[in-house]
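Two proteins were folded this term; both appear here.
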Amino acid sequence: MLVIKVGGSAGIDYDKLADDVAALVRDGVRCVLVHGGSSLTNEVATKLGHPPRMVTSVSGIESRYTDDKTLEIFEMVYCGAMNKQIVERFQRRGVNAVGLSGIDGRIFEGVVKGTLKIVENGKRKVLRGDRSGKIERVNTDLIERLLDGGYLPVLTPPAVSRDGEAMNVDGDRAAAMLGAALGADTVLFLSNVPGLLRDVDDETSVIRELRVGDLESAMRDVAKGRMKKKVMGAGEAIAAGVGRCVFGDARIDRPVRRALDGEGTVITP
């Protein structure tokens, strides 16, 4: 069982990804794809006059402040354009993909935060009205039915709260929890960098191997920006029983197979 998370940053080649995943599916590999859409969301939000507001938590984690309008744009891009364009790519390759959000079938379920404690210009602040949340439960019944029926599930945030409200959640951590719930051998995180870098300005500085016990220091000393969430997700996945996590490059040919062959950062228990 393989769970693949592909980001939404600029530079990612979704056609090369689709080629590779389609070949794996034809070879009988059970796959689930989770995708993001941050770059397009930022572009659309700016054009609509509601540009993204990125904030940093008191623990140093960067995230998107999600008010009602932002969530509406988020759903439009993630659940609409991004999801259906990825599904279309697989259909053109003869793979019967099904696109779903975490709301559908309550696949990703949790609680809305409501407030965010952030640091801005050196000062601590509390932002209210936040529509982001934390996944507490992954309901796999629908996913397993699709897999058993020969479909490729293509999933995206948002998730759903206990009260049935949509909420923004981090896609990397959602994929990690999904991999654990499905008993995945591997959770693969693909983005627009070749792995976890010692120096973010040097793409040759990939850290090839990490043990889960190294992740705390990696979070503190190495991971920057969005990579912090990926490191957190990898730690959570392995703690929950996933065999390994891999950070790989989604800009190259055969991105999945090359990452699985160790061309990236491999994290093991």
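Next, the second protein.
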Amino acid sequence: MLGGSIVALLALAALCAPLLTPYDPLRRGGLALLAPRAGHWFGTDDLGRDTFTQVLYGMRVSLMIGVTSAATAVVIGVLVGACAGYFGGAADDVLMRLTELFQVIPRIFLLILMVALLGQRLVVITTAIGVLSWPGTARLVRAEFLSRREAEYVMAARAIGAGAARIIFRQILPNSLAPVVVNGSLLVGGAILLEAGLAFFGLGDQNTISLGQMIYAAFPLMRDAWWASLFPGLFLSLIVVAFNLVGDGLNEMFNPRALPR
């Protein structure tokens, strides 16, 4: 509940950013490098832009990247894991070797390579993070399907002539969604951190403002304007911790054995 409340509050603040601040995140709102004060609660950066305004709009981008990338990873992971676990045999071997290939390659380096080749656009970054984050979900779904593909309700579905697609998506998958939902909530925080790391290397989308992009721009100013990097860093950490709390809570809710006795 705490994690969900924090996520909801931050998402609401990001969506209502035009109502919470009169400034434009990309335009000068005051003198450069003003310390936090009334009218500029988080101070201003080296270009005179209001840091509080940038944090609000930056949360929009970071949350969008996290949720979209996690959804992409979940969809790919579910499809790969379901096919591998249900069909087994050669399909399982090929798909699992592909999964292991993606797992052994450091994601951040492959992500840097993809963004450098395809461009530093927000859609490229989001898609690349999602494409590189699915192996864990695939292995999780595969394990669920291996344990359920010979269950009585699956055998009954086969007996009445149900096809493979119907059994996968109508019978087994709905009973395997609990760990997928938990894993998906954890993927959101990981995707936000990946985008922040990418932005810190100077490979973020320069036409948008994200929390990672703010930290990258404020890094040279840490001695003279500590607030320019402190506040986006705090909110970035808060978002990731909140999604991890949501994941832990969902795990306890879906897995009664995990509850303390």
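The chain has a mean pLDDT of 90. The CA atoms of residues 231 and 248 lie 26 Å apart. These notes refer to the second protein only.
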